[in-house]
Design brief:
A: 350 residues, mainly alpha, Leucine-rich Repeat Variant, 0% strand, B: 465 residues, 12 strands, ARM-like (chain A), transmembrane helix (chain A), transmembrane (chain A), HEAT (chain A)
Chain lengths: 350, 465
């Protein structure tokens, strides 16, 4: 290789970064220009948009948005701002109407774009704006997928927000589908559909453990007290995982028809069951279990000791109880745990 | 003599070619990933987690040693973080200044005798305080034991399944924690560590614990570090993480699965590079268990930190980093080129050994040969000059590509003139910054032989006003 080829290499390296710099600078300039005009139009339209959303009779906004050059981007931003701030806006017929009128065509095109990020954004917005008209297209898209990747997961969530319960059966086709996704779907379905699906999941005719697990978990989190009898019957399930989920749900529901249902769990071999039973006893202030809780304060597992102490301090005389146990409990670890809780009580009173 | 120079020169040239190509390769890998997510609406993709009860709660650990200037504003910025359930634990590692007093005063803290569950042995804990205003802020006062020891104490006291380690003088962006936890939640726990980007705050305006205006500093020493961080984070880490062979998650900002960390034995007190050492140990654990769990870097969540402005402080920082790197590679030498550890042993460890650690030695020898060559008239000045130009332009091209990645991912710097300035300084790198780095990194290797762990003695001005 001669020295000239190195010179050539130098020229090439130098020029390539010069070109890169120019391209980047140009791109930066163009993007900030575009951003500026979009922002201007956004600002200009905010006022008429707000009054239209409050009173659709004032249709200045509709005329203005029609003549806006960056129509879809500006409307998307206005609607997105509105749904993230205004209460109950997720089901607003005006949002649905505006997005159906102005965004449907664009979104339908974007869903078939090669760029993954654009497809993802579109799915997020369809969900936010509840664009029912795109549901058939999304279902078609779902039918064609075979992989539970990020896009499919969002597709399922978007469809669930459009109240499409078959998302659950599609998800069930993936054996590795996580509980989290089932929960995401339950959360998005409309109340009536959701209740039906939860009942079906609890019956578990399809023998889908994850789905049932998710249903119990959701009932607890959402506080659906109507399902209490079903949850209580799950406390006797043979499967320990289901029992734990049922206990967790009871803990969240903060209600139990017959406290004696808890009895076997304090002696359970599984420490999670002992822990949840203790936590329930505390939260529901079941004073008949005070004795049991004092015993569990000396449990071999740290979490059970912790939860037993936490439960004890929730009783009206909890501070006296815990101070007494800190001094007199035969187990050293129990005394430690009790003194820790005693002092945390001091901290919160200050 | 001549023959010796010839051979040495070939070795150096071969090395330079190898390391340059490895960087280009890493860039291509990083570019693919960045391009895919370029247009993604980040806000939309995380907003669902905000009100979600399934979002795992996180303990935020802030180890602090003589951080009286920044600690309160760091904690304030952490309070403003959008996250459903979190707790903040500041660990005062035997500071000689008013670190604890500032915390106690600012958050109205009261001492609480708290039984700590000792997962990992640490230096003695002298007191634990809890804020009466925000009960989820706690402060551990302990005897000095080094940063690793402080973090271990924080792990012991933390009550949540994940912890986020953040430096005492850093500012995390509001949605930073949410974005860092997103991959962990979405992978259902398959990702056990995530690290975000660390950016240099010098030059930007930060008020009320929030980055208000992003600008470049005037000091060339800091400007060069900005370019360097771009390269390290956006090219290096992104590409290595893509292959699941990332060995460093910055000590300044990362989220860890607590159970896994405890299983691995916590942070190692005997190294100054405790952040890297822990990640390597976790990789080792995963490979030995044949686990499919991953360690991931995500470019988007950003943590702002203060970079050294004087050469003297920068020098001690770099010597410490290099020493940490050496110690980590040495204590895990068993993994080096060991097929049992898969790509970590075969690619990552050798990469860090030859490019990141010994790179400085090769370059140092290169300078030596050039000077020696001139002295003994063995090198033609013209040839040497042209070759030198090649290294300059190549180096700055890589920096330029890193700036390109920053433009595609976060484009935090608002003006085109910012880009031009970064470009200009990248071109000057080979004349002053690079030789200094090479020298200090060689010193760092020597320093590794004289063991004595201590905190970096950086003079903080405080980045928040």
């Amino acid at each position: 290789m001669t020295i000239y080829s190195f010179w050539l290499l130098n020229v090439f390296l130098f020029l390539s970064q010069l070109v890169l710099l120019l391209m980047l600078a140009l791109r930066k300039h163009r993007l900030s220009e575009k951003e500026r005009t979009i922002n201007e139009q956004y600002e200009d339209l905010t006022e008429s948009f707000s009054s239209y959303m409050m009173d659709p009779a004032d249709d200045r906004f509709l005329q203005e948005i029609r003549s806006t050059p960056h129509q879809t981007v500006v409307l998307q931003r206005l609607l997105n701002g509105y749904v993230s701030v205004a209460k109950g806006s997720t089901t607003s017929p005006l949002v649905a109407q505006l997005s159906e009128d102005f965004l449907t065509e664009r979104y339908a095109k974007q869903l078939t774009r090669r760029n993954w990020a654009i497809r993802m954004n579109t799915l997020y917005f369809i969900e936010d704006f509840h664009m029912q008209s795109l549901a058939p297209m999304l279902k078609e898209k779902l039918r064609k997928t075979t992989l539970l990747d990020q896009e499919t997961q969002q597709l399922l969530r978007t469809l669930a927000s459009l109240n499409e319960p078959e998302t659950l059966s599609v998800l069930a086709q993936y054996p590795d589908a996580p509980v989290r996704l089932y929960l995401d779907i339950f959360k998005r379905l409309e109340e009536h559909t959701r209740s039906q699906e939860l009942s079906a999941a609890l019956r578990n005719e399809t023998n889908n453990k994850t789905l049932k697990h998710a249903a119990i978990s959701y009932i607890g989190m959402a506080g659906l007290i109507a399902f209490l009898p079903r949850i209580e019957s799950e406390m006797q399930n043979k499967d320990s995982e289901m029992r734990i989920q049922a206990l967790k749900a009871i803990f969240h529901l903060q209600f139990i028809t017959d406290p004696s249902l808890l009895l076997p769990f304090f002696q359970s071999l599984s420490w999670q069951e002992r822990m949840f039973a203790s936590r329930i006893a505390g939260r529901l202030q079941l004073s008949r279990f005070k004795e049991t809780l004092s015993e569990l304060l000396g449990d071999s597992v740290w979490w059970v000791r912790y939860s037993a102490a936490e439960a004890l301090v929730q009783f009206a005389d909890g501070d006296i109880l815990i101070a007494h146990l800190a001094a007199t409990h035969p187990d050293r670890f129990a005394r430690d745990m009790a003194s820790q809780w005693k002092s945390s009580l001091l901290g919160s009173e200050n | 003599m001549h023959a010796f120079f010839q051979i040495a020169a070939y070795v150096i040239i071969a090395y330079m070619l190898f390391s340059s190509l490895s960087y280009l390769l890493l860039f291509l890998l990083a570019f693919r990933k960045v391009k895919r997510e370029d247009k993604l609406d980040r806000r939309e993709s995380t907003e669902d987690f905000l009100g979600n009860q399934n979002t795992y709660p996180v303990s935020i650990l802030v180890p602090a040693y003589n951080e009286e200037v920044g600690v309160v504003s760091t904690v304030r910025s952490l309070l403003a973080l959008e996250y459903p359930e979190k707790e903040v634990i500041v660990i005062d590692d035997g500071s000689k200044d008013q670190t604890s007093e500032r915390m106690i005063e600012a958050f109205n803290m009261k001492q609480i005798p708290f039984a700590v569950r000792t997962h990992i042995e640490t230096a003695e804990i002298t007191a634990i305080y809890q804020s009466t205003v925000f009960p989820y802020i706690r402060l551990i006062k302990k005897a000095n034991g080094g940063k690793a020891d402080a973090l271990n104490a924080g792990v012991n006291l933390s009550s949540y399944p994940y912890f986020c380690a953040i430096d005492g003088d850093s500012i995390l962006e509001n949605d930073g924690l949410l974005k860092t936890m997103k991959p962990i939640i979405e992978s259902d726990g398959q990702i056990i560590v995530t690290g975000g980007s660390v950016r240099i705050a010098n030059g930007s305006t930060i008020s009320r614990s929030k980055v208000e205006i992003i600008d470049l500093p005037k000091n060339p020493v800091v400007l060069m570090q900005i370019v360097e961080y771009f390269r390290a984070f956006l090219i290096g880490r992104l590409a290595l993480s893509h292959l699941n062979i990332l060995l460093i998650v910055s000590g300044a900002f990362g989220v860890f699965n607590k159970e896994r960390v405890i299983q691995a034995g916590g942070y190692n007190k005997n190294t100054v590079g405790e952040d890297m050492e822990l990640v390597v140990r976790l990789h080792r654990l995963l490979r030995e268990e044949k686990s499919k769990q991953r360690i991931e870097y995500i470019p988007d969540p950003v943590c702002w930190t203060e970079a050294p402005e004087s050469l003297e402080v920068l020098r001690s920082q770099r010597i410490r980093w290099q020493r940490g790197l050496f110690e980590t590679l040495w204590s895990h030498k068993k993994m080096m080129l060991n097929p049992k550890y898969g790509a970590i042993g075969l690619v990552s460890m050798p990469y860090f050994l030859f490019v990141e650690l010994l790179g400085a030695v090769f370059e140092f020898t290169g300078y030596f040969i050039i000077f020696g060559g001139f002295f003994f008239s063995l090198v033609d000045p013209n040839t040497a000059g042209v070759l030198f130009l090649v290294t300059i332009f190549y180096g700055s091209l890589i920096s330029a590509l890193a700036v390109l990645l920053e433009e595609l991912t976060l484009h935090k710097y608002p003006k085109a003139s910012h880009l031009a300035r970064l470009y200009f300084w990248a071109l000057t790198e080979a004349f002053w910054y690079r030789p200094l780095m090479v020298l200090w990194r060689v010193q760092g290797i020597f320093a590794a032989f004289q063991k004595k762990a201590h905190w970096g003695d950086m003079k903080r001005k405080g980045i928040s006003s």
